[in-house]
Amino acid sequence: MSIIRHKHYFLSYSEEHEQAEWAAYYLTGKSRYEHHYERPYFKQDPLIDTESAHWRNYKDTGYDKGHLVPAADMKFSEEAYRETFLTSNVAPQNRDFNAGVWNRLEQKIRYWADKYEALFIVTGSILHDNLVTIGDEEVSIPDYFFKIVVRVENDMLVMIPFLVPNAKSDAPLYTFAKTIEAIEQITGIDFNEKLSEKIEEKIQKELSYKEWSFS
Known about the structure:
Layout: E1 2-5, E2 10-14, E3 19-28, E4 63-67, H1 78-83, E5 90-94, H2 95-99, H3 101-116, E6 118-125, E7 133-134, E8 139-140, E9 144-153, E10 156-165, H4 180-187, H5 197-205
């Protein structure tokens, strides 16, 4: 995996699966200005030495080019908005999932950004061997996607991770909430690698919906 740092977000790209295993960015209540930029074409990521998968892999497959870092969260500048249309920032998503439960979760996160002022968000695909693929470049179709939403409160990290199947669902969002430990076990990624042991233990073992507003 290679870490790619763009100006407004960064990601870890998996050449094997031709997509990011995760992408991370900051979202504040003041950063989502409602500019209406012209939607650009998807382009391959120039920072990836092996080149990210071409958008044509998705053509006529029935799968959406689903953003990991949403374009709607990057409307504060045209540069940031256009950065989200690099193919390293998309993965094959079921259309009912993308337009349904995933969209509901993204809207809830924007609500939280307004309510709590600032969030750090990690979004990714659950990637493993033997996934179904699309296109000549064999882009893997994830069975699940995850989001980890973090805020700081009273000098402590408050975190809520979600694990959502890549399929249509009308279930309430809180039913997809998991512990960070569960996400780490599935992905094999230590998201708390740079945190102190005390904070890491707290956020791994605790999952409290009371610290987040679902209303």
